[in-house]
Amino acid sequence: MTKIYVSTIVNGRPEDVLCEAHQSLLDLLRDEIGLTGTKEGCGTGDCGACTVLLDDRLVCSCLVLAPEAHGKEITTVEGIADSQDGLHVVQQKLLEHAALQCGVCTPGFVVAAKALLDKHSDPDEETIRYWLAGNLCRCTGYDKIIRAVQDAAQELATTK
Amino acid sequence: MSNFGYVAPTTVEETLSVLKRATDQGQRAQILAGGTDVIVQMRSVDNSHRLFVDIKALRETNEVLIEEEQVYIGAAIPSGVLNENATLKTLLPGLLESADLIGSTQIQGRASIGGNLCNSSPAGDTIPALIANAAICVIATSEGIRTVPVENFVTGVGRNCLVGNEFLLGFQIPRPSTGTGDAYLRFIPRTEMDIAVVGAAVAVTLGQDGICSHARVAIGAVAPTPLLVDAAGVALVDTPVDEEALRRAAQICSDASQPITDKRGTIEYRRKVVGVLCRRAGAIARDRALSNQ
Description:
The complex is a heterodimer.
Chain A (H helix, E strand, L loop, with lengths): L3 E7 L2 E7 L5 H8 L18 E4 L2 E4 L12 E3 L13 H8 L9 H14 L5 H7 L11 H17 L1
Parallel strand pairs in A: 1-5
Antiparallel strand pairs in A: 1-2, 3-4, 3-5
Chain B lengths: L4 E3 L4 H13 L4 E4 L5 H6 L7 E4 L9 E3 L3 E5 L4 H4 L3 H6 L1 H8 L4 H4 L4 H7 L6 H7 L3 E6 L2 E6 L4 E3 L2 E2 L6 E8 L5 E8 L10 E9 L5 E9 L6 E2 L1 H7 L6 H14 L10 H24 L3
Parallel strand pairs in B: 1-3, 2-3
Antiparallel strand pairs in B: 4-5, 5-10, 6-7, 6-10, 8-9, 11-12, 12-13, 13-14
Helix pairs in contact in B: 9-10, 10-11
């Protein structure tokens, strides 16, 4: 089998790469494009560490085949921070609330939480917990993450 | 270099010819929709080489058509996309809830009703809801389209009626008439993201007098395949779908189930709970039907 040509836009930047059919989008991002912010946890779609946006929809990049990215737009954790103002408010609040320890789950939480706040400006706690249920964290016990996201939602509401 | 391949045809004809070419060359071909089962299985139980035929670029697998007599739902539409369709949610709330129960936000960005059916697990959540709503599978074959009622699609654990180079395009569902409501409930030991221990779906149509004229009941995870329980539907017809009628239907579901004991539940437990869920889903479907007069 020959390698497959993939033309995609990652965090607003065009990327042209070659991949194999059974490689995952996660492999493509980390090994071919060199964006190692996205982490591999389980490789089976259970933990959410590899969460990215694929054409504005949250997906586990471990459960997307690399060639499926052809012609699509992808946002990874590297594309979340605003280049002008520094960290995104979700990232800032995760830091302020000490909502991470080992940090492996954090990129997935950042991407998923930002997608939540883009969709729901004022989510209640239940909405946040359901939305983030596909992101597992073995360190924090979740409460700090939930509070950080609530705080980020409030800050976004007041600065609008 | 591996012998994996990937193609994303854009028409049904092209898909069929890709599948035929692979078969003729002795290459294994596998249809890819959302991949939330297929890719997991490739990385765990079955890593043999194959050609992935991605059907997400086809119009027929992606469109929702809401017509006067029927609703068509493409097989490869992610459940997250379906649940953003307000008209579908109003017409078939139980079916959409069954899709919404599967997996996390990330999984719902990919997982499809068609994939759930073709995975053909006894516990697939959308299957009883499709059956209760009398959904018909629209299948592409080299001889044209053939249709199969969803209750006849799954033939065993992980097995279905697709043969040769056939693949699923979507579902035709009779458009629910005035006074119709559906519901799906499942039992899992956690609050979400688990595989059903038991599932039950009910769709009922009530007349202006509140009497049921049509009912279908389907159960999941309590037999090698999801089951249509005709007699449970019959037990609801000509009744106001009250407690008494629902208890009869529940008993029929318990009797029709052929569950196994596994780590998720015992035979006795599943048999009892399938009745309970039938009763509760029936009450929700009835209330939805009444509010839809």
